[in-house]
Amino acid sequence: MEEIKINTDIIKLDSFLKWANLVQQGSEAKFFIKSGDIKVNNEVELRRGKKLKKGDIIEFKGKNYKIV
């Protein structure tokens, strides 16, 4: 599991994907989120504005990322 450090208390899911360099653009993040390809804490998340906090685990393309 890769740990991704954020500089704020919360970050939105679409912003996290860009911050972690998992996608290049917001439109790409929106596509993956709306397609149901992303899990947050083992549950499919369809809201790109979902607020993430430290300790949350994001699953994307078979890899897990923990926010620290």
From TrEMBL:
SUPFAM superfamilies, sorted: Alpha-L RNA-binding motif
Listed InterPro entries: RNA-bd_S4-rel_YaaA, S4_RNA-bd_sf
Keywords: RNA-binding
PROSITE patterns found in the cross-reference section: S4 (PS50889)
GO MF term set: RNA binding
NCBIfam families referenced in this protein's UniProt entry, alphabetically: YaaA_near_RecF
Name of the protein this chain belongs to: Ribosome-associated protein
